Amino acid sequence: MSTSGFTRRQFLRVSALAGGGLLVACGGGGGGGGGSNPNNPQPPGNGGPSDAEQFTVSEFMRIGSDGRIHILVGASEIGQGALTSMPMIVAEELDADWDLVTAEHSPVAARFNNPYFGGLLQFTVASATTRGYFDNQRQVGAAVRQMLVNAAAERWQVSADSLRTERGVVYDDLNGRSASYGELAESAANQPVPSNPPLKDPASYRIIGQSKQRKDAAEKVNGTHLYGIDVDIPDMLTAVIARPPRFFGQALSVDSNAAMAVPGVREVHTIPSGVAVVADDYWSAEKGRQALEVSWNELLAGRTDSNDTRDEYSFKLNLPGVPIRVDGLVPVAQLAAAENRSADYFFPFQAHAAMEPLNVTVDYTGSKADIWTGSQSPTLDKTFASLILGLLPNQITFHTMSSGGGFGRRGNPLADYVRDACHVAKASQKPVKVMWTREDDMKGGYYRPAAAVRVGASMDNQGNITAWTHRAVTQDVTASLYAEELLDTLAEGQLPPFKELTDLETGMPYDIDNVLMDAHLTLKPQMPSLWMRSVNKFTDVFAQETFIDDIAVSYSRDPYQYRRGMLASKPRLLAVLDAAAQAANWGSTGGGRSQGIAVLNHWMSYVAQVVELSVSDDKVITLHRIVSAIDVGTAINPDLVVAQVESAVIFALTSVFYGEIELQDGVVQQSNFDDYKMLRMFQVPQIDTVVLPSNESPGGVGELGVPALGPALANAIFAATGEKIRELPLKNLGYTLAEQHPA
Amino acid sequence: MLLLRNYWLGLSAALALLVSGGALAQSPLFTPIYEVLTHPRCLNCHTLTDFPRQGDERRRHDQLVMRGEDNHGAPTLQCSACHQEQNVAEDKVPGAPHWGLAPLSMGWEGMGPQELCTVLKDQSKNGGKDLQALLKHMEEDPLVLWGFDPGEGRTLPPVDHTRFVELLEQWVNAGGPC
Amino acid sequence: MFTIRVNGEDHTVDVPADKPLLWVLREDLKLTGSKYGCGQALCGACTVHVDDQPTRSCVMPISAAEGHNITTVEAIDQQQIGRLVQQAWQELNVPQCGYCQSGQVMAATALLTENRSPSDRDIDEAMSGNICRCGTYARIRKAIHKIADEQL
Fold first, then answer.
1. pLDDT tens digits, residue range A272-285?
2. CB atoms within 10 A of CB A18
């Protein structure tokens, strides 16, 4: 990660307000988008959403004369704690009083773009928030701190070097005086912005590395935290969209008479993705949709079938793909090997199923628009909105709301749900909230794509691996982006590095001289797929790590020690492997319990996980304990890092046991949480997480705990039963989960 | 694999013979009633377990739903937390007045016709109902009625409620032979 | 017209009889703390208390809600145990995305009100109707035990 220069244009424009203060922090904070509370259109000092936007535009932080510091965050809060950890980084270098810091989502503007994506986008995916913003957030905090110090030096006519800062106060120790940041804010605003402020030595951190309480925790337990679905603006209508049974079908004819007869239904509009029923409230809209009669043109509709996909991918496993990693000479090593073996794996489509179904509110007046939605991709969402509404980007105020879960679904570069809502708003010309029901969300596509993987290994007489092959067949979730000319309108004509987001596994970490990894990225434009938490690591690492155990066990090698022997050149990975094994008391379980282990290095972070379980004769799995050891470099807020790993463990267990979207002739079979099950409280085992101390650059955390959990679990099943798990989900193999605390 | 399947087919055919043979030895008046009472619409809540079942596959009720002391769920996850007095959400969520499990003593799972018939009539187990009271229960109880009109997406017992009542009347009038 | 008593106040709304309580709370009474997650009582995000019993408001017709005392998350801090639950949830960083937490708080408050020292089994039986996609279950369990052990 290069540290690009800190420019005035990019990061802050500090301006004084009459009456003192580097602007006044607005009340509450953190709850709304862009500084405005849509449910209270006239908060004190603000004329309304758009006025508030103007008020905050081009600001990075506000310091009140009362010393309160309000920080605008360019990353999206999707549960990972961005609105807590980002301000912690700023506050550290600012030497702020953490108790006086509040935060909210920034406006959608270039200076809040994530440097990880070339500074082109606000994009909260790929575990890239902390990694991407860390350096710049520090610089912002350090620069403002320097401005405050310089203001104090000017006021007291002393050298800035003789002053120090602590918890929101500038001290002049020599002369025994001090001034709070609030007192200095107004004059600090007139100081030049230092271009290269000094950064702290990590040894003197007092906020970074501390387990702080989430800034949004209070609002999230008393019902006041506002999500997109909670937005309520005057005269707002509510719409639901009837969609074709197969992806990309088109409405051929619409009989809206019965729908319009439902009390409360106001309008019916045909839009590209379906037919929108617009009503006074959700319940009327939904009843109107049930009464709507639409016949669909499905000539060009998607006909993806899960079984056919599996057959197609299985066939393609036999064909060479596009090489993505070539080390040494695999064919030669295979010829010289004592044994060559391979295994094929298959993984189904999966839905993100965030708890808050998708929704977007649009207030479009013809010459400007306000948009509220929980989004991981506000820059692209806003770009598409401007194209559909025929507005310039600066005529649109995009309010990034807290997301009730994202997992990638709210980071769709094609902005599907925002485009839909803009079409409805444009047709209606009234403020409208477009709601997705759970069923809409479940059947709405943009799934984790199905995948097949073939791994192969060549061994010498002792079972040492001399060559490794890995072939993935899956859908390119990014390829379709390049077909979208619209994206060319993006800043500076460059496309962001979406290719990297496909994230096919090339990081096979073991010391093996000969490696060939190749892939078939199939194009299925009628089968909308998307990244889902940990993307292709979920499938690739499952195959890799279960196959390692397959080999180890057949050569009578302990799976943990076998991995150890191949990680001599990866000290950080070796360290988490050892830490996990130690914490899990590897090898010393009794009472019919079995363990499985797996490792992963990605997102600049390292993880090893151990699953301990037992399996009954009728395939009921009792999970006893799950241990994760991680090295994420500098952990900004260790407790939230642990929370992310706990979250990933549950997320992965759900995927591994239940996660499957089935398509029959293009029709999605699942609809709600009864047929797309989630792990529940009674199934959750003891989860322990060890965070290895580190001062290295921060790595990604949000996805880290997902990919290795499945193979660790499958390896434990293999150890318990001898069954090699070659496909998911486990429910299809007859496995169920036991109650953790039987009555 | 094929052999195994044939084996199972044979075994289940033999079992079916046994069962139907057994049923033939029962009162023919009770046989059609038995077939209704052991339908998932009835049996899912006439369980012998401390939890209800759901669906035609009779899977254990999701959400770790429990029988509870009063047969209406765990203390803070009562049946009425979700089940209304009628079906809601386009019949997706079933409902009827006093939705709940039958008491354990009225659990019928795994019973053959004769055993079920005996248990059904046993006033120490059926809540003190004589034959007429049984008839009235199955004629009028809204939860029983729901079983014959369970809403879209649910299979029905082998006969409709009118016929069921006729069959019951015949059985009751004959003195409830097992 | 239906009159319902929510958080101690009567409200009269002119809505169809089958409109679920959840949407009356959210749209007509502007109490958006109770969340829509599934519409079929499968996830528990909409949990409110009806006469102190946790109830899925997304499937309760407004016609069935008349005559009952309804408490939503917005007023759960009026109960001592509700406050303790909210405090413990904050202290242990329970919420992540937070969307399910209104329902979790309502379910946990009812549990601890009914049972001041719940076992793990009691927690499982009371809380397994509430889905958390972020997987905060372990912290929820810990928070419930913490309240029971230290404060009740």
1. 999 999 999 999 99
2. 6
Is A36 contained in some domain?
A: yes
Which residue, A293, A659, A663, is CA-closest to A443? A663
- Residues A75 and A131 both lie in one domain: yes
Say how far apart CA A678 and CA A653 lie, in whole Å.
9
Long-range contacts, stretch B55-58, CB < 8 angstroms, 24+ apart: B56/B154, B56/B155
Q: Closest Cα to residue A572, out of A487, A632, A482?
A: A632
- Out of B65, B76, B89, name the one closest to residue C107 (CB): B76
Question: Domain coordinates of chain B in residue numbers?
Answer: 26-61+104-173
Mean pLDDT to the nearest integer, A138-155: 94
Picking from A443, A478, A513, the residue at the C-terminal end of a domain is A443
Same domain, yes or no: A435 and A519? no
| Cα three-residue angle A31-A41-A72, rounded to 5 degrees | 35
User: Looking at the 3D structure of chain A, how many domains does it have?
Assistant: 3
The answer to whether C24 and C4 are in contact (CB under 8 A) is yes
Classified by CATH at the fold level, domain C2-75 comes out as Ubiquitin-like (UB roll) (3.10.20)
Contacts A–B by Cβ distance under 8 A: 12
A254 and A296 together in one domain: yes
CA-closest candidate to residue A521, choices A539, A502, A537: A502
The rounded distance, in Å, linking the Cα atoms of B33 and B40 is: 14
For residue A159, the domain's CATH number is: 3.30.365.10
pLDDT at residue A521, rounded to an integer: 86
**Tell me, what DSSP letter sits at residue A321?**
-
Q: Does A485 touch chain B (CB under 8 A)?
A: no
- Chain B positions touching A682 (Cβ under 8 A) are 64
Which residue of chain C has the CA closest to A437? C38
Q: Is the pLDDT of residue A98 over 70?
A: yes
Interface confidence, given as ipTM, is 0.98
Question: Does residue A634 contact residue A696 with C-beta atoms inside 8 Å?
Answer: yes
Torsion of CA C12, A221, A62, A126, to 10 degrees: -120
Facing residue for C115 by CB, picked from B75, B84, B92: B75
B64 to chain A, closest Cα gap in Å: 7
CA distances from B30 to A654, B128, B157, C19 (A): 46, 20, 15, 43
- pLDDT, tens digit, for every residue of A415-444? 999 999 999 999 999 999 999 999 999 999
Element (H, E) at A220: helix A217-222
> Taking every pair of C-alpha atoms in chain C, what is the biggest distance, in angstroms?
46
CATH architecture observed for domain C76-151:
Orthogonal Bundle (1.10)
Rounded to whole angstroms, the Cα distance separating A705 from A606 reads 9
A624 and A516 belong to one structural domain: yes
Which chains are within 8 Å of B by 3+ CB pairs? A, C
B64:A681 CB<8 A: yes
pLDDT, mean of residues A486-512: 58
Q: Tokens 């290295």 label which residue?
A: A696
Q: What are the tokens at A224?
A: 């006041």
Instruction: For residue B20, name the pLDDT band (cuts at 50, 70, 90).
Output: very low
Residue of chain C whose alpha carbon sits nearest to that of A285: C19
Instruction: Give me the residues paired with residue A177 across strands.
Output: A172
A731 burial type by CB count under 10 A (0-12 exposed, 13-18 middle, 19+ buried): middle
List the single residue in B50, B62, B64 with the smallest CB-CB distance to A674.
Answer: B62
Residue-wise pLDDT tens digits, B64-80: 999 999 999 999 999 99
Residues A335 and A666: their CA atoms lie apart, in Å, by: 44
User: Do residue A743 and residue B50 have CB atoms under 8 angstroms apart?
Assistant: yes
> What's the full length of chain A, in residues?
743
Instruction: Determine the structural domain holding residue A208 and report its residue range.
Output: 8-222
List the 87-146 stretch of B: residues with Cβ below 8 A of C: 88-89, 92-93
